[in-house]
Design goal:
By secondary structure, the chain is an alpha+beta fold. Helix content is 22%, strand content 29%. Helix 2 crosses helix 3 (215-225). The radius of gyration is 28 Å and the shape is extended. Its EC number is 1.13.11.34. One of its GO terms (molecular function) is arachidonate 5-lipoxygenase activity.
Length: 355
């Protein structure tokens, strides 16, 4: 017969619109699954108390079967409640569990998704499929993959053949809630669009009466009409910030580690020697994995149009090349950043630099 133990369960709900349940009678249960088996569903409730407000952390001390090493948890939302007309969907950020007899060992389960009916969460350890895993975990992961393959399928509409792939669905509302475009997303997009339009109008309006003498003129006008300038406006001239945009920007997969310079980008030791460590060569830096390359060759010969003297003019996109060096501070990588060493704005031009 399995002995009982006491679990300390901490639940953190998300801080987004509709994250918590407003219904005092909504039933949320949790099943703990481990190497020795699983517990019965543990109903997370307190008398006359709604434990699932948005952005709220609560603790439950509950007695249940000893499951040994905890592998995963199952959270169930029965969608019940006194106010049936209201949504009782729950957005979980994190669940953590420990045995009351051992505060040092805490099992953490990152969630960050909506629980509309039933969801399974694994402990937040980074593991590959090839790593040794319990059969229970492996089977659940395989089931999860099959379920996602059923939910996310490629569209097959013949009217869109030849165009980029798209998700097959009956509309945005039929997709899982965590991938839907939320009201918060819409508000953020509206605010960004509004600032962009105001930004453009501001440039045209002031240009009717004054000429822009320097970049700081625009900053003053922006602050007066729009508000605080974004972070990029304060640091856009810094090489480390410029390099960070390639690592964390909208298309970070364009930057790749460079082990050998391409023939179309003949950078020499003399060009970048002042950026390297004392006594280090460019070849050594590449061998040590500190050099990265951005190649926008895909943009070669792509036309676009602009106006010159009120006439439409055909131009071509610049297939730029950029070489970046990872600079490490204080002897460890935690504070490393990327800085550009050399850029090529069109064809190989050994004298071109970023401005």
């Amino acid at each position: 017969m399995t002995s009982n133990v006491t679990y300390c369960i901490r639940v953190l709900t998300g801080n987004r619109k509709g994250s918590g349940t407003w219904d005092l009678d909504a039933e949320i249960s949790l099943t703990i699954i481990g190497t020795k088996g699983q517990t019965k569903p543990l109903v997370l409730e307190k008398l006359f108390y709604n434990a699932f407000w948005a952005a709220y952390k609560d603790k439950y001390v509950m007695e249940a079967e000893d499951v040994g090493e905890i592998l995963m948890i199952k959270v169930k939302n029965d969608q019940s409640g006194f106010f049936h007309y209201s949504s009782v969907d729950l957005f979980l950020d994190e669940v953590s569990i420990n045995y009351e007899s051992d505060d040092n060992k805490v099992y953490e389960f990152p969630c960050f998704c909506w629980v509309q009916t039933e969801s399974v969460f694994f402990e937040g350890k980074a593991k590959l499929v090839t790593d040794e895993q319990d059969d229970e975990v492996r089977n659940q992961r395989q089931l999860e993959v099959k379920q996602r393959q059923e939910i996310y399928q490629w569209g097959d509409d013949p009217d869109y053949r030849g165009l980029p792939g798209f998700i097959k669905s009956g509309g945005a509302k039929t997709l899982p809630k965590e991938v839907q475009f939320t009201q918060d997303d819409a508000n953020e997009l509206f605010q960004a669009t509004s600032k962009g339009i105001l930004n453009a109008l501001l440039v045209k309006f002031r240009g009717l009466f004054h000429s822009w003498e320097e970049f700081d003129d625009f900053r003053k006008a922006f602050v007066h009409f729009v508000g605080d300038v974004p972070l990029a406006a304060e640091h856009w001239k810094e090489d480390s910030f410029y390099g960070a945009q390639f690592l964390n920007g909208c298309n970070p997969d364009t930057i790749k580690r460079c082990t050998e310079l391409p023939s179309k980008f003949p950078v020499t030791q003399e060009m970048v020697g002042n950026l390297l460590d004392a006594g280090e060569t460019l070849q050594q830096a590449m061998k040590n994995g500190r050099v990265y390359l951005v190649d926008y060759e895909i943009l070669f010969d792509i036309p676009h149009y602009g106006t010159l003297n009120s006439k439409l003019e055909r131009r071509y996109t610049c297939p730029a090349l950029g070489l970046f060096l990872r600079q490490e501070q204080w002897g460890h990588c935690a504070n490393s950043h990327s800085a550009p060493t050399k850029t090529d704005q069109s064809k190989p031009n050994l004298d071109s630099k970023r401005h």
